[in-house]
Amino acid sequence: MDTDSVENGEGSNIRQRISAMWVEWRTLIIFLLVMVLFRSAVADWNQVPTGSMKPTILEGDRVVINKLAYDLKVPFTTWHLAQWDDPKRGEIVTFYSPADEKLLIKRVVGIPGDVVSMRNNQLYINGEHAEYTRLDDNIVQQLDAWNRRNHYFFFERIGNTEHAVMLKAAAPDDYNSFGPLQIPHDKYLMLGDNRDNSADSRRIGLVDRDRITGRAHTVAFSVDYDAYYMPRPDRFIRELQ
C-alpha cells in the first residue's frame, strides 16, 4: 500500500473530524471567546476575599467592575488603546499592586497634584481636614460582633466626597500617620476603608495610572463565608459609595 496515500487519507479524516467538531461547537466557542474578551476589556465581576474595604465591601461580595470607566485596553494587558477619563478622588478602583502584581480593590484618596497627610487617622488633603460623623447603624450591623466591638465607625467627608470608614480603637502610630506627601503626575494614593487593616499605598506605594483596571460601582451579590456561604439578600444589587 502506498504510504503517501495512507497519510493523506489519515490527514483528510482528521480535517473532517475537526471540521465536524467546529460546526457542532462553534457557537459555544465563539460565545466563550466573546465572554472572555468582554470580561477582560469591558466589564467584570470580582470576588472580594479580604476585609480591607469594610464596612463598604465585605468578604464574599461579588463586585461589578466597569473596565471602560477610564479607558480602553488591549484584552489581557494594561496597554491603553484610548483614554477618556481619569480616576476621581473617592472612587473605588481595581488595580495591579506595584508590590506583587496582585489585583487589589481600594479607594482613591490622593490624585495627581494633591498634598496628602494623615495624623492619628485624621486625613488631610491640600490643607483641608476631613470631617467625621457617626456612621448609620444599618451599615455597622452588617459586620460581626468582634468588628463592632473593636472598631469605631464614621462617615469621612472631605470636599464633595463622603464614604464610610472603620478605625481600630488602638492602632499602631506608624500606620495611622504619614506625610505630607505630594502626589506626582500619573500616580494615585489608594487607601482601604478599613484603615488600620489594609495593605494599601502606605505599604505598597503609590499606584501608576496604567495599573488601574476599572471602577467598582455595584455589589452584584454576596455570600457569608462564616455561615456556610449562605447568600446575603440585603447586599444584592447594592450600589457602592
Account of the protein in words:
There is one protein chain. The protein is built from 4 helices and 18 strands. With 241 residues, the chain is α+β, with helices and mostly antiparallel strands. The strands form 4 sheets. Strands 1, 2, 5, 6, 14, 15, 16, 17 and 18 form a 9-stranded antiparallel β-sheet that branches. Strand 8 (122-125) and strand 9 (128-129) form a beta hairpin. The longest helix is centred in the N-terminal third of the chain and has 39 residues, at 3-41. The radius of gyration is 24 Å and the shape is globular.
Topology:
Blueprint: H1 3-41, E1 43-47, E2 61-66, E3 71-73, E4 80-83, E5 92-96, E6 103-110, E7 115-119, E8 122-125, E9 128-129, E10 131-134, H2 137-140, H3 145-150, E11 151-158, E12 161-168, E13 178-182, E14 187-191, H4 201-204, E15 207-208, E16 212-224, E17 230-231, E18 238-239
Antiparallel strand pairs: 1-2, 2-16, 3-4, 5-6, 5-16, 6-14, 7-8, 7-13, 8-9, 10-11, 11-12, 14-15, 16-17, 16-18
List its traits:
241 residues; four-stranded antiparallel sheet; 2 domains; alpha+beta; Umud Fragment, subunit A; globular
- Which CATH-level-2 architecture of the largest domain? Ribbon
The DSSP helix count reads 4
The parts where pLDDT drops under 50 for at least 5 residues are: none
Q: What is Rg?
A: 24 Å
> How confident overall, as mean pLDDT?
85
Q: Please give the largest β-sheet.
A: 9 strands, antiparallel
Question: Looking at this structure, what is the CATH superfamily of the largest domain?
Answer: Umud Fragment, subunit A
Category by helix and strand content: alpha+beta
- CATH top level of the largest domain is Mainly Beta
The amount of helix comes to 10-25%
Shape: globular
How many domains? 2
What is the N-to-C succession of helices and strands? HEEEEEEEEEEHHEEEEHEEEE
